[in-house]
Specification:
Helix 2 (42-53) crosses helix 5 (127-138). The protein has nine helices and ten strands. The chain has a single domain, classed as Spore Coat Polysaccharide Biosynthesis Protein SpsA, Chain A. It has helices spanning 3-11, 42-53, 68-79, 97-107, 127-138, 190-199, 209-215, 235-246, 250-253; strands at 13-18, 58-63, 87-92, 114-119, 143-149, 156-162, 165-172, 180-182, 186-189, 221-224. By secondary structure, it is an alpha/beta fold. Helix 3 (68-79) links the parallel strand 2 (58-63) and strand 3 (87-92).
Length: 256
């Protein structure tokens, strides 16, 4: 892709960052996106990763209603954009991830043709992962997700009663070579994603937009993800992110 094509693709691409989670399991008493691994909020790390990837001119961040601090973080990062001009918008997060994404899709500018949906809770995604997702979209894929291989043995189970107590019984062991763990950013043709949101009723078992596209009958393609795209959900996840920021990722984020 030459530079003019790259600039056109960047102008037609938006990244939606979902940052409306409560963060209760982290135990900090503040929204997850404000928790500061290595002294910087999770949202700041996530924004810097998107900006460094240089794949989009527009970023839309879903934040909790009334959270002025997260909006201030967005405004500050827009000014410190590492040489890649970008506009950062904030939109109201919803009661669920799906509702937050739907709010962001309604806010997109008319020039946007494709969108990457990203979790702020995955703040250390390498630039190369963003690039691979966008290259697959360039190649004509309507939906693209980064994945990594599953290393643990996985069991499917069903609920049962055992001695009068609730328990689970193993029903099968799927082959690991057919399984992948899904990460973000997930990339989509905006037209196809909007159609899927309109066609598929909201259901609690739909956990990401790729699954929504599957339900709508759209082919979803995969590209390699990264171990550094780990999702921060628990206190141990936060410790892992801090260790990476002090170690292998230190040249990227941590000064000195």
């Amino acid at each position: 892709m030459d530079s003019s094509q790259g600039n056109a693709a960047r102008s037609a691409t938006a990244v939606v960052i979902v940052a409306a989670g409560s963060g209760q399991r982290l135990g900090h008493g503040i929204p997850k996106a404000r928790v500061p691994p290595a002294g910087q909020p999770i949202l700041a790390h996530a924004l810097r990763g998107v900006i460094a990837a240089n794949v989009a001119a527009q970023i839309y961040v879903c934040v909790p209603v009334g959270d002025s601090q997260l909006r201030e973080i967005c405004a500050a990062e827009e000014q410190l954009n590492d040489g890649h001009p970008v506009v950062i918008h904030t939109v109201h997060g919803g009661a669920s991830r799906a509702e937050s994404v739907a709010n962001a899709l309604r806010a997109l500018e008319p020039s946007i043709e494709r969108v990457l949906i990203h979790d702020a809770a995955r703040p250390l995604v390498p630039v190369e992962v963003f690039t691979r997702v966008c290259q697959a979209l360039d190649g004509g894929a309507p939906a693209v997700i980064p994945v990594i291989s599953v290393v643990d043995t996985i069991k499917s189970v069903e609920p049962v009663l055992l001695g009068g107590a609730e328990a689970y019984r193993v029903t099968g062991t799927p082959a690991r070579d057919t399984l992948r763990a899904v990460q973000t950013p997930q990339g989509f043709s905006l037209h196809a994603l909007r159609e899927a949101h309109s066609a598929v009723p909201a259901q609690d078992d739909i956990t990401d937009d790729a699954m929504l596209m599957e339900r709508a009958g759209v082919d979803v393609y995969v590209v390699p993800g990264s171990e550094y795209s780990h999702k921060i959900t628990s206190a141990s996840d936060l410790l892992l992110a801090e260790a990476w920021l002090e170690g292998p990722l230190a040249p990227r984020w941590v000064e000195g």
